[in-house]
Amino acid sequence: MSWFLTVFLSLYTLLHLLFYRAVRCLLPGGFGARALLGLFLLLMILAPIITVMTGSQGHFGLARLVGTVGYWWMGFLIIALLCLLALSLLRLLALPFSPQAWNWRAPVALALGVAFIITTYGVFAATDIRLKRLNLTTDKLPAGVERLTIVQTSDLHLGQPEGKTRLRKVIKMVKQAKPDLWIDTGDMWDRPLLDVRQEMDLLRQVKPPLGKFMIAGNHEFYVGLATAFELSREAGFSVLENLGQAVGPLYLAGVYDARAIHPEWDAAALAGAQPGRFTIFLRHRPLFNQTTAGQVDLQLSGHTHGGQVWPAHLITSRIFPFFAGLYHPAPKTALYTSRGTGTWGPPMRLFSPPEVTIIQLTRRSGAK
C-alpha cells in the first residue's frame, strides 16, 4: 500500500504541476491569484487521502464532500490535460505558418471549457449501466437442467461517495434478470466505506437459489481482507479464498487477487473439480493459467474497467491482453473480462460503459 501511495502521489503531483504551468496565463497579475490556485491544487492532490482518513475516523459527511469534489476534479484534470496537449500540438503545427505570436489565453480557456463538458458527460455515462448478455452452451449440465442464469458484477467499489446510488440501479437490474447464481469478481468494497450498512441492506435483497459468491480484488486488500469479507458475508455472499466448492450442477473456484499467477492457489481452488462438472474459475485480474486450462470451462475476471476513461485503454490493453469481453485462451475454455460495474477514482467513464453481465449457460441439445 505504501508503494502504491508513493507512486500515486508522485504522478498526481506531476499532473497538477503541468496543469498549473498550462493555465497560469489566465491568472490576473500579482501573487494572490497564483497562491490561491496553488492552494486549491494542493488540496486536490491531497483530497483522496483526506477522504480515506476522514472516513476511517467516522467523519462521513466531510469524507463524502471531499471525495465527491476531489474525484470529480481528478476526472476533469485528466481530460483538461488531454485537451491542453491537443492544443499544444495544434500550436506546434501552426507555428511555422503564423508570423505573429500565438495568443495563448483564449485557446486555453476554450480547452478548459471543452474539458468541463466532456467531464460532465463522462460522469453521466458512468451512471448508464448496460446489461451485457453472454450465451454459452455446454454438455456438462445434467439432464433436467436445461439453462442456468448467472449474473456477474465486478469492481463495484462500494463505499465510495456515489456507490449507494449506483448499487440501487444494479440491484434493480439483477432482480429483473432473476439469476440462479450471482458472482462478483472482486473490488466489491473500497475506502472510505461510506453507506456500507445501507449497501449491505440492498445486497441482501437478492437471494438467488444457488447463492452469491465473491472473491478478493486488490481493493479488498486496501480495505483489509477481514473487514471486506465480513461486509460481504453480512450481505449474503460466500467468499472463495483460494478454494472451490460444488454449487448445484457447477463447480466454483476462486483465488485471491495478485499481480501474477500463484499455481499453488489455483491448484487448491481446483482440487475438487470434476471433468464432468462445468467449472467456473474466478480471478480478479484477467490472467490465465494455461496449466489448468483442461480443468476450467469458464474464467470470470474484471479489474481493467475496460480502460474506464479513454484513452487509458491504450495502456491497460497492453498490460492485460484479455482486456475486456469474451476470449478463448485455450480449447474448450472461455474467459470473460467484465468492463466493471462501478468506477475507481474519477466517477466517470468515456467509451467504456459500466456493465452487469448476464451469462446464460445452456445445455447443448443432444447432451447425455
From TrEMBL:
TM ranges: 31-50, 71-94, 106-126
InterPro entries membership: Calcineurin-like_PHP (IPR004843), Metallo-depent_PP-like (IPR029052), Metallophosphoesterase_sf (IPR051158)
Recorded GO CC terms: membrane
GO BP: lipid A biosynthetic process
GO molecular function, one term: metal ion binding
Domain Calcineurin-like phosphoesterase, residue spans: 149-306
Keyword tRNA-binding on entry: no
Origin superkingdom: Bacteria
CDD domains recorded: MPP_YkuE_C
Keywords: Hydrolase, Membrane, Metal-binding, Transmembrane, Transmembrane helix
UniProt keyword Transmembrane, yes or no: yes
Protein name: Serine/threonine phosphatase
